[in-house]
Protein 1
Amino acid sequence: MHTQIYVNIAIKDMARSQAFWRELGYEFNPHFTNEHGACLVLGENLYAMLLTEPFFSSFTAKPIADAKASTEVLICLNCSSREEVDSLVAKAVAAGGTAPRAPQDHGFMYAHGFEDLDGHIWELAYMNTSAAANPERDA
């Protein structure tokens, strides 16, 4: 099994992207951060590499998707509560992101999300494991 994940996403403006994520309360690993890439620490062994478009292009011959016009991936992060979900979405919107959809309440799972400054979609979900394990929840 794998022990870490690094999701690589293309960004337009390094300083602006780092400021956005810091507004949400996240930090960067300074050992893997420079003017071309920044290692966003999402949790223990969970990272997103924010790569400037020219640097990102050096890893692939394919064109970079415009995340504001199309969706290549949905990144989903688990949260510890509904309040954490709502708080992170509010912080993202206050920092210049958008919340394109309303929150989704499925009883056992509460989800909401935001688009960052480059249009990447970050879904946030709180899973109520006791409700998910209850077969009568859908009755």
Protein 2
Amino acid sequence: MTAADLLLVVMVIGLTAYALLGGADFGGGVWDLLARGRDARAQRKLISNAIGPVWEANHVWLVFIVVALFSGFPPAYGVVGSSLEVPLSAALVGIVLRGAAYVYRAYGAGAAGPDHWWGHVFAVSSTITPFALGVAGAALATGNMSPDDPFAPVRSSFGLVCGLFAVAATAFLAAVYLCKDAAASPATEHLVPDFRRRAVGGAVVCGILALILLPLFWDQAPVVAHRFADRSMLLVVLSAVGGIGSLVALARNQFVAARLAAGLAVAAMLWGWAVAQYPDLVVGQVTVDDAAAPSTNIHAMLYAVAGGLVLVLPPMIVLFRLFTRPEPVD
């Protein structure tokens, strides 16, 4: 394994962390948007309390991926930055609006509360961002991206369905995670059945979208599709087992096991895509070997990552332990 390959593995690990942590936050925003009925306010309050002060910390992983791409694979960074500005700009706008809306609705004596229109901005932005990132990921697999046609990724049926799949996957994760948060307090345990049903619904939608994606995948991303069939089927099975296992665990009120299984389901699918994408960073345009910076630079980047993790991980773990415990819902 070369230094460039090792950096790529580290980037996939960072992407996995972002999908499982930041993705669950985005999914919480999706359920905030779809909250209905007499328990809608309680659901929104639970989501807000579960996200808490850790929501911004999860973007550390996205920042790391961008810095690693820029430092380790500069030509690929140039292609991505000049060809995916439409979906990536949409994702960035969603992240910024989401953060601002969350602050205005949640903090200070004049907090607007989750039912104010700032809450709706937060919810809509939470849906836009994973959709846009899904579209961008699909463009990397198809190679259908060019500086001369910035809207090409959003005209791709494969890309649009990938965006919907990303939203559904984050919603599934959030619903599974929220079951445990709801069960943690007698004041919120009545919300467990609601989020259990949402988890089942999210899993079903993911399955339907996966079936829709199959023919589009083979038609619009044949290079990666062939590799996927050859290299990633075990990971697909692992993802399916994780998804089914999470639903079984939820039915048995085994919420920690459900979280782990749901994380495995999403992570295994992400890994399957990464394995099939290699050695291309952008199919038909940039490979790992073509884009890799000098080995000295990559070694320095790897040392910096190792040192950064030593400094960042312990306080992040403490932060999650302190602030991911939901407060009672009125």
Protein 3
Amino acid sequence: MKKCMTFVAAMALLGGSAVAHAADTKVGVLMDITGPIASFIPPLQNAANLAVKQVNDQGGLLDGKAVAIYGDTTGSSQGAVDAAQKLANVENVPIVMGALMSGTTIAAAEAVFIPSGIVQISPTATSPAMTDMKDNDLVYRIVPSDNFQGQVLAQMVLDEGIDKVAVTYVNNDYGVGIGQTFMDAYKKAGGEIVAEVKHEEKKNSYRSELATLAKGGADQLVVIAYAGDSGGKIVKQSIEGGLFTNFIGTDGLRDELLIKDVGADALKTSFFSSPTSPADNPAQKTLHDAFNAEYGSGADKAFVDQTYDATFLTLLAIEKAGTADRTAMAAALRDVASAPGEKVGPGEWAKAKALLKDGKDIDYDGAGGSYDFDANGDVSGLIGKFVVDGDTYKQIAIFQ
């Protein structure tokens, strides 16, 4: 199996932008490499690196090579701002893929990328707050807003015949956004929220919050938080205290770290929602085959499809623009992502480059689906229902 990171990406993480030559073009990759979602990151780095490798193996970017310049948000708002400032002001990247968490994506956008005029495309940030940002058409994402996921989660819960739940959600952009949407949709459809607790991150104990949640008498606890932080602790402490044994989570909790921490048997009655890819999508198979050929395994991990697609789209935008001028990126991104145009899929860089050179329009349809951005830089999408299956998660339904 090849190492998780290519030489170029590894050097970039160490500040090695000197590997870029005069004709090379840098692209920013902002990830939450350390912090609460660190366990998600290795296959996502591989996905971004694969996109860059395919570009360089098939003719390169513009007149040279694509060079991925990584920044680590550390999973915090200040870390996101610091990393974004380096990408914008030191590395002078024209476009950025990332970040992943909603809070770090928003922090980087508001403090750095919007003022600097840099397009940013997130593969995973879902906060509804992004929709109405005053972003000068610079902030995009390729997963649906939590306004959609919250509504779908309410439907999932009611479809299971569960008409009474307790709810806890983390006090950040991600948790508040999906938590409020879920509760509103669930109650409107006839469900009862017997207890609701908005909790803070990075605490050692959530036993007092759990005691409050358990008083309502619900058998099911909805947990909207990250498994690497408060979400995982809440599930574990719930089980240890005998307070809840049935959990309902969103994509932040659909983390294999949770299975490692509490065991698959403890999660056999739980289920989780997460943005997903279309069923029987040939483009997904193309990516997964290439990914596993390159890295040995991991193509099925959460958000691999979206991270690859977002990275490939940033590179297509630069090629379409014919320049690394920041001001040309937004229009170019919209052009390559949307109809009309000749279809281009994962790994088809040489085809895309030739079509663009001939002045033809292209329309990228990725492993995660097609991405037709609306006026706010949002897309429609699909939400999957997942259950624990051994040491990983298995999708059992798709909602749209």
